[in-house]
Write a structure and sequence with these properties.
The chain is an alpha+beta fold. It has 12 helices and 4 strands, in the order H-H-H-H-H-H-H-E-H-E-H-E-H-E-H-H.
């Protein structure tokens, strides 16, 4: 009895697994789990190369149809003793076969996405099997070579669309970097104008001091000292702005967190070439996240991309988004980040504090609201009538 039950279970389990595979072809939620992650087949550098290859594959498909090798058929067929009628019937059946199979392939190509590409491959294969089975009595069969070209078109189309997404992200990042370059240029120009203004004010103050005496002279000396300090600071800003504008790899690597938005152990590591790196941190904490970021390190480097890459490599296995390396968030504690920073940039300052002011104020406000609600509930009914 036990052996019979086991055999019965095994048969039904095999049937269940087979039906689940077939269902996965049409249900994207099951497909992603059952059919696995898609592995790329091509390595073209840009979307235009994919488009060109798709055209070549389609041309090869048309050539196979013209040469009548896409759907080979038995031409030695007669109807009512007539070979010509038999040929007409076979030709008609081949056209119907091509139309049915091509329509199924076109639907798969049109609807292919990152989470169903494996299912769409299976769908094309299943369409071939079913159509061939239907045509078995006529000895008509869709060739393996033609199916391979359809699968290649599907894969190329999917990978082209993914490449277009990547290119869009790259253009967005390039535009952001271009804006930073423009900002650097403007900062350098503004710093030069400020330096010129202080030079004129200092020259004027010195000229007036020559004609002054007593208390007025002392006041002019204090003014001159203040202007000299301001001029030195302005000159330093000019030199720094020029240096960063000229050195395309110079910049700041930032290490920031956002307790209220992402929780305890989520860290963002990125770089900016802005003269004031805090501008970039403030920009990241704009309306796209509910709270401002806290800064743990702002590290100036003559080769900022190399330093950023080194820090990214330290925690590559801890990326929050493993599919997109441009998303620079990592699930790592402050202790590990501090150790990595102290090793890769020994002179950098690291701040462990998470101020999270707005987040903590929000918690306090909600706590106060809860207290007030509790008090209101307590006084809703009198202790006695």
């Amino acid at each position: 009895m036990t052996e019979k039950l086991r055999a019965n279970y095994k048969t039904k389990r095999e049937t269940y697994d087979r039906l689940l595979q077939e269902l996965a072809i049409f249900d994207e939620r099951i497909a992603f789990a059952e059919l696995g992650v898609y592995e790329p087949h091509f390595d073209f550098t840009d979307s235009e190369a994919y488009k060109h290859q798709i055209k070549k594959v389609r041309s090869r498909q048309k050539a196979m149809i013209s040469a009548k090798t896409a759907v080979p058929a038995n031409v030695d067929w007669t109807v009512d003793g007539s070979r010509s009628k038999g040929q007409t019937m076979i030709n008609r059946q081949v056209r119907l076969t091509l139309r049915a199979f091509n329509n199924e392939c076109e639907a798969a190509v049109a609807n292919v996405r990152w989470n169903n590409v494996n299912a769409m491959e299976k769908r094309i294969e299943r369409a071939r099997e079913q159509i061939n089975k239907f045509n078995a009595s006529h000895q008509i069969e869709i060739s393996r070579s033609y199916v391979s070209l359809k699968l290649e078109e599907l894969q190329l189309t999917h990978e082209m669309r993914e490449k277009i997404k990547v290119e869009k992200d790259e253009r967005r990042e390039a535009a952001r970097l271009a804006r930073e370059e423009e900002r650097l240029t403007r900062d350098a120009e503004n710093a030069e104008r400020e330096e010129t203004r202080y030079e004129k004010l200092l020259a004027k103050a010195r000229a007036e001091a020559e004609a002054a005496s007593g208390e007025k002279l002392e006041a002019f000396r204090e003014k001159i000292e203040a202007l000299e300090r301001d001029l030195a600071e302005a000159h330093e800003r000019v030199e720094k702005a020029k240096s960063m504008a000229e050195r395309t790899r110079a910049g700041h690597v930032y290490v920031i967190s956002n307790l209220g938005s992402f929780g305890e152990d989520i860290i963002k590591i990125g770089l900016t070439r802005r003269l004031d790196p805090d501008d970039r941190v403030r920009e990241l904490g704009d309306a796209s996240v509910p709270f401002l970021f806290d800064t743990h390190a702002l590290i100036y480097s003559e080769d900022a991309p190399a330093l950023e890459s080194a820090l990214h490599n330290e925690f590559d296995s801890r990326r929050v988004n493993a599919a997109n390396p441009r998303k620079e968030f990592f699930r790592v504690g402050l202790d590990e980040i501090e150790q990595a920073v102290s090793r890769l940039a020994p002179d950098a300052n690291f701040f462990r504090d998470r101020e999270a002011q707005e987040y903590r104020e929000t918690l306090a406000l909600r706590n106060q609201q809860d207290i007030e609600k509790d008090k209101a509930a307590e006084t809703a009914f009198p202790d006695e009538l």
